[in-house]
Amino acid sequence: MPDPLPQVRQLTLRAAATGAVLGMVLVPCNVYSGLKIGWSFNMSIAAALLSCGFWNATRRVAGPERIAHWGMLENNINQTCASSAASIISAGLVAPIPALTILTGQTLSWPVLSAWLFSVSLIGVVVGLILRRQMLEVQALPFPSGVATAETVREIYAAGREAAIRLRGLMTAGLLAAAVKLLPTAPWGPAIGLGPVGAPMLSTRGLGLMLDPSLLMIGFGAIVGLRVGVSLLLGAAIAWGVIAPWLFATGRLPAPASPDEGVFLAAVEFLLWPGVAMMVAAALTSFAASIPRVLRGIGSAAPEDPVEGAREGVAPRWLIAGMALATVLAVAAQVCFFEIHPAMALLSVLMTFLLAVVAARVSGETGIPPIGALGKVTQITFGLIHPTSVGTNLMTANVTGGAAGQCSDLLHDLKAGRLLGASVRAQAVAQVLGVIVGSLAGSAAYLLLVPDPAAMLLTPEWPAPAVATWKAVAELFRDGIDAAPRGAMPAAVIGTVVGVLLAALDQWRPKRARRWRPSAVSMGLAFVIPAYYCLSLFFGAAIAAVALRISPRWAQRLTLPIAAGLVAGESLAGVGGALWSMLWKIGGE
């Protein structure tokens, strides 16, 4: 690992400001996509490319004597801050917070929501700093996203034209996606009647088996890969091509007024039960399988240089003070904002410290933080302790999931910084700044996009699958199984069995065969989002796979920037459209 270079500028005012501004711009993208399909995008590479493009252009215009070179370590601080801000959605913006509003009617003002996001995320930052030495130096876990970020930043600075090529791809894709979003487009496809298969009241158009012009979905498909894309296609075929027609044909659901009328809202009331069961069972099975590795890993190795980590790490007294402050803030926020009993609030924080270790280990090995699974562990725990309290069930789990997400994001950033020779302390400051910026900007974007979650979410426009998952678990404990639609519980049992079996298969060797096994989480997701989203995601994954086969070199360089541009372009256009509508409404009044 390169030694930290104190003489090289790192935590400069412009690095922090650039990261903060890019964080404010990029966090709405993740809020938008999270409410659409329940996924978010790591914005580290996008932030690194955008900052390079901006400062290089500014230096050419103003002159090198006025603008200093935008250095690699400054860029690392920028991407740390921006990715921290963009990952704020793991603190509950696209899952437990809207689920709470739908179930209880409680809404949070912008200051309260910002304070809540900050208190939850601060726990993750503190835990990440505490675990840094064990995870990065002692066990030397790979943290794939951090490695990818470091390699990309190195390539940008090693090859003069590399940044320009990637940035051009990102910006072109972003402008194209924004233009398509602003056009009056809609899913399209032939309306084929299903009379020959016993469902004359339905057509393929009504079931959503169409093509969607959303380039955001194409971009996400390219990012998640062919295995996930095929799993989504398979799940959509089962859910919307088999189960939904059967529900209407057998009279379990009332027939629509016409075959072409959309049936998403009616069908998803049933389909979310097997879909959510499949996702939760698979996530918890994978989580359980990771525990032995975590236990084996703790204390399994000794650091080669015990002095090195202390030299650049955060002092223990600051970590202890940070842990105490984060605990007090998280407990106080739960008690004040949601009237959770102090003992329950403290228990949730203590569970979070424990489960964050698992999250860090799993994320370090796979690159995927098990936010949903850890949230379900807490939901189930508090559902058994206090089953009738929806607020306790959702918001204690919010603490666990949010902290796990921010902890994993920090460790990936610290991995990138370690490979680049960056200062841990400087990155810690940048991460906290990103949390502050993300809390403010993320809550504003959420309130702007969905001012009425109960009316707007769980619809074809905003499927919000993560909200559906958290809401279903809370309702199950509050209302019992009798509240489920007729036949939903047997379907949920089948979904659970499928989720457990597929997740268990993922643990088997050889790993090479894993790419051909369906992903239970992706299949379950297809049950709770429109079928045309699944088709677009599959097409994006297929296009990326074909590009990789035809031209591996160019695909490896440009797939991620172009996909990031498609995601960011449509998201920002959607946020801009919502802002324009709000201002137009205010002006009309």
From TrEMBL:
Any GO molecular function: oligopeptide transmembrane transporter activity
Keyword terms: Membrane, Transmembrane, Transmembrane helix, Transport
Domain of life assignment: Bacteria
Membrane topology: Multi-pass membrane protein
Subcellular location: Membrane
Residue ranges of the TM segments: 12-33, 79-102, 108-131, 215-243, 263-289, 318-337, 343-362, 428-449, 487-505, 525-550, 562-584
Presence of keyword Transport: yes
Keyword Transmembrane helix: yes
Major location category of this protein: membrane
PANTHER family: OLIGOPEPTIDE TRANSPORTER YGL114W-RELATED
Name assigned to this protein: OPT oligopeptide transporter protein
Organism, as annotated: Pirellulimonas nuda
